[in-house]
Amino acid sequence: MPSWLPPLGMLLRCAAVLAVVAIVGGFLTIWSGFYSVAASRGHWPGFELVLEFAMRSSVRTHALLIQVPQIDRPEQARRGAGHFQQACAPCHGSPAGPSMLVARSMLPPPSDLKDLVPTWKTRELFWIVKNGLKYTGMPTWPTQQRDDEVWDTVAFLRELPAMSRERYRELAGFAATDEAPSRTPDEARLASCARCHGDDGRGRDTTAFPRLDIQTAPYLLDQLKAYANGTRASGFMQAATAELSAREMAWLAEHYAKARPAAAAPPLEADSLRRQGEALFRSGAPEQGVPACAACHGAKAADRDLRYPALLGQYASHTKTQLELFKQGARNTTEAAPLMTTIAQRMTDEQVRAVAAYLAAEPAR
Amino acid sequence: MQSVLAPHGPEAAAVARLGWAMFAGGALICLALVVLVFLAIRGGAGSRRVIASERFLIWSGIFVPVVVLAGLLSWGLVLTGARIAPPSPGALQIEVIGEQWWWRVRYGTEAAQKFETANELRIPVGRDVELTLVSRDVIHSFWVPSLAGKVDMIPGMTNRLRLHATEAGIFRGQCAEYCGGPHALMSFHVVALEVDAFEAWLAAQRRPAEAPATDQSVFFSTGCHGCHTVRGTNAVGTIGPDLTHVAGRLSLGAATLPTGAVNFGRWVRENQHLKPGNRMPSFGFLSAGEVDRLATYLDGLK
Question: Which residues contact B58 (CB under 8 A, 6 or more apart)?
């Protein structure tokens, strides 16, 4: 050690004293309350840059290992748009209108996503949407159990910067809420469901949303309750059902169950995938321990356990997503779900695609 | 109920004889060793010289073991060879299929007389029974200690085993080769019946289920028929055990529980608790009333 330095013991003592002074001083500064947490005052000059730097660095690092799945199917952005209008647009605004004034008065104010989205990588957007951002008011996704809906939202966000007002209004189903104001409160509720599901539960002539018209009212009501109390995980539907009263749920279930299933579509040419799906539906795959789907889902509502959904006529994308969630165990939360989890986990990916294709081509019963 | 030391048929008796011979021989050898050790430590100089000699080592260390082991091997080969000899004419044929974690049992050779049951073999006293043993998934091992030695069930192979019960009784058997999760709960019963009782049982088994006096709707609405067969109804599933006469069996869940309405209900609701990992999901969501109706229906399938 050079001779001009004080002895080591003295250096350590000085450091200890300085540390105590810093801790006590810091505590007194905070305790005094002179630092203002007022959003109206903004941040100290330069502090915002530090926060921004920390946030960007954190997102970059945490998103590093996320694998981006396919997100360019049109139905994905459509589902994302439906949710965006309900859950994101109030704070972030949308191509159809500005955000709420109250939201714009937050610190930091929610960003205009048109400018911001292009500055993030796709996997980073996913991470932000799924996890939210501390100290900014950006909430976490309502469930951490499934990622497909978050990717739907990211698919929409990727399109957002270049999206026209008309395209946004069409995607988010504005036609359903634009109609004449002379409605009962129940009909007004229905309108917000209908933005995605259509008034008849068939998803506005798209296959992006599950068909509700093929289900019975008790089944729909059970699912609405399961979404509302969080036992069935879905960021989209938990957000949509959280504020429904029991009476409104019953009314909506009745409404969609009453909708007449569409007239049978002209039968499609049976390709080999659908034939495989039909065999699975009717006879199962006993050698894999997969029973016939028809045993539980095939009968008319009168002979079926109403806790089991109808499947004939269901859109392929929905069947496929749900079976994949069952396989992952992400749907193993409602009371009858362990049955289907057991079965789905014995199915191959090809069988999932086959049965989804078969069901979509069948007329509902 | 399940012991190699209590044989109830010639096959098991032969195995037991071999076992006793081994125990007795083992005891003799053990005794001889104790004596030798004693002599080596406390014996006189003469006996110690003999024990230390090369000639003694060659005779007792090489010659005696070769003779004893060769004798045991030939005995074992003759014993198992007799077991896999061609079936005697008039032997009753039964096919047993090991599946995770239960036994599928098929009777009958002609189409009209064929039927399937599970986890229970009924055999006539005094008649040879020829078992065909196969596996559908992993290696299992069929073992009824009181009636015969154990034989592995190996995927892709067909093994045979002859049983012959000399008296009526219930003999427990079990899977004797670890086959995954609930292996310990993969047991079964062999019920040896006097010939008349056996013929009556056989005739009853061949009949389809009688029309139930009680409500069978829960069985079909909840999808039990996706996996189970009840002959005489629309239930034609082949994944799980045939339930046509399930209530007439001694046990369910491969000898996990005795049959009876209460246990049918418990099995339906909480089989994953009773036999964790078995291939049937629990129907815990059924209401108490539904479980009662279903259990009553199953208990009527005599």
Answer: none
Question: Residue A338 and residue B282: Cβ atoms within 8 Å?
Answer: yes
Distance CA A42, CA A51 (A): 13
CA A292 to chain centre: 31
Strand order in the sheet with B187-193: B120-124, B187-193, B169-175, B140-143, B151-153
Partner residue facing A286 (CB), from B222, B238, B284: B238
Number of neighbouring beta carbons within 10 Å of residue B86: 8
A347 contact residues in B (CB cutoff 8 A): none
Q: Are A4 and A11 in contact (CB under 8 A)?
A: no
Q: Across chain B, which distance is largest between two alpha carbons, in Å?
A: 89
Q: What is the 3-state secondary structure (H, E, C) of chain B?
A: CCCCCCCCCHHHHHHHHHHHHHHHHHHHHHHHHHHHHHHHHHCCHHHHHHHHCHHHHHHHHHHHHHHHHHHHHHHHHHHHHHHCCCCCCCCEEEEEEEECCEEEEEECCCHHHCEEEECEEEEECCCCEEEEEEECCCCEEEECCCCCCCEEECCCCCEEEEECCCCCEEEEEEECCCCCHHHHHCEEEEEEECHHHHHHHHHHHHCCCCCCCCCCHHHHHCCHHHCCECCCCCCECCCCCCCCCHHHCCEECCCCEECCHHHHHHHHHHHHHHCCCCCCCCCCCCCHHHHHHHHHHHHCCC
Kindly report whether the peptide bond that precedes residue A108 is cis, defined as omega within 30 degrees of 0: yes
Q: How far from A304 is each of A237, A252, A308, CA to CA, in Å?
A: 25, 22, 7
User: Do B166 and B124 contact (CB within 8 A), yes or no?
Assistant: no
What is the CA angle B244-B258-B119, rounded to 5? 50
Nearest CA to B254 among B154, B146, B181? Answer: B181
Chain B residues touching A335 at Cβ < 8 A? 284-285
Q: How far apart are CA B252 and CA A328, in angstroms?
A: 31
Check CB contact of B220 with chain A, cutoff 8 Å.
yes
What pLDDT, in 10s, does the model give residues A67-110?
999 999 999 999 999 999 999 999 999 999 999 999 999 989 99
Cα B189-B193-B198 angle, rounded to 5 deg? 110
Could you read off the pLDDT of A235-289 as tens digits, one per residue?
Answer: 999 999 999 999 999 999 999 998 776 665 655 656 889 999 999 999 999 999 9
* Closest Cα in chain A, distance from residue B281 (Å): 6
Helices A316-328, A349-361: inter-axial angle, 10-degree rounding: 150
Q: How far apart are CA A292 and CA A278, in angstroms?
A: 10
d(C-alpha A268, C-alpha B89), whole Å: 58
Question: Residue A221: helix, strand or coil by DSSP?
Answer: helix
Whether residues A286 and B220 touch (CB distance < 8 A) is answered with: no
**Residue A227: CB partners within 8 Å, gap ≥ 6?**
A234, A237, A238, A240, A241
Pairing of strands B115-118, B102-107: antiparallel
Q: Which of A292, A303, A336 sits opposite B221 (nearest CB)?
A: A303
For chain A, say whether B214 makes contact (Cβ under 8 Å). Answer: no
CA angle in degrees (0–180, nearest 5) for A97-A101-A107: 115
Q: What is the pLDDT of residues B21-64, one digit of tens each?
A: 999 999 999 999 999 999 999 888 888 888 889 999 999 889 99
Q: What letters, b where the CB count within 10 A reaches 16 and e where it falls short, cover A345-365? A: ebbeeebbbbbbbbbbbbebe
